[in-house]
Amino acid sequence: MKKYLFGMALMMMGASLFTSCLSNDNNNDNTPQKVTVTSGAFIINNGQWNKNNGSLTFFDYKSTSATTTLMGGSGLGDTPNDACLLGDTIFVVGSTDNMIFLVNRKSLSMIDYVSTTELMGESEGYSPRAITAFNNKLYFTTYGGYVGELNPKTLQVERKFKVGSAPEGLAFGGTSSEVYLFVCNSDYGNGDGSISRINMTTGSIDEIKNDKVKNPQKIFAIGTDLYVLDWGHYDEMWNQIGAGLYYMYNGTATQVVKDATDADNVVIYVNGQAVGYEIITFNYPYGSTTATYSKFNTYTGQTTSLVLSGDSNYKIESPSAIGVDPLSGNIIIASRTINKETGYADYTMPGFANMYTNSGQYIEGTHFQTGVEPHKIGFTLDQTVVSY
Description:
- By secondary structure, the protein is mostly beta strands.
- 6% of the residues lie in helices and 52% in strands.
- A hairpin with a 2-residue loop joins strand 4 (80-86) and strand 5 (89-94).
- The protein is globular.
């Protein structure tokens, strides 16, 4: 139990990078109080590979309007893949361009950029894939088989860690004595995937393998309990087999959501205490014709279906990304647009997104257009003053 509670504390420490810790004391004198609210959502759009039309879409909660910007060579270039908000800066990894772009989250303007191959070397730094933040440092994976530790002030890589083949997503966890960085090694879908565990104190690295986890893409950690989104493999007809969300502990792996292909999470509270995650997935393996949605509760161990409703005018037919508002638990799902002539998803047209309540009801006025191939969803938090 102590290990589990420490894991939750570590998780909340990571979350504190994105918002200040505020008092929950009762306010009996009606003194105005600062509270944290979600001000908007940002979506990183891949664009078309080799077309140099990656972009960022920002959806403003107050105006319910969306802006797509930073498109092309003067912006996010070719295939931006992931992003992480630290302070007022969105750090975006540009996979094809071997870049990390710095974007001001309020003005949506480019601040700076750094080359990962110049920082780490041509072979080590090529094709950055995913990025996260912890203790005011940034950590990103590269297809060179490394994790880089980036100082956001100096924009220098202070440490680099050799991990497995084609690493993707990463997450922090740990015990009462050690902090670990867990890394998904996808093996580029060749079937020999694994999880690297980096000891952040000693820098030592070990590997966690299980035959059920072949192509890990994303990971959520509570202590040393791991929840891994795995893409499985493809058969001779390119049907995706074995995708799902897996619970991993002490080398074992149990599938808790079948066919899951993307996921995001929100913290669960019981009596004001963080006790686990609700992990929300869309289940749409390549070769499927219909998407389903699931919610897995790490506290209870239960998986339930999520049914979307009220969106008949803006139906999600080819989901490409999912994000969960960390404060409200509302869900944003992005989709490719269906080509009316072919009846298939069009990877050359702008996509769109809808917001739903945590129970799956579409929220009126929250349908908006994105860039081409929306891929990653994040949220911006602000403080506002209210009187009770």
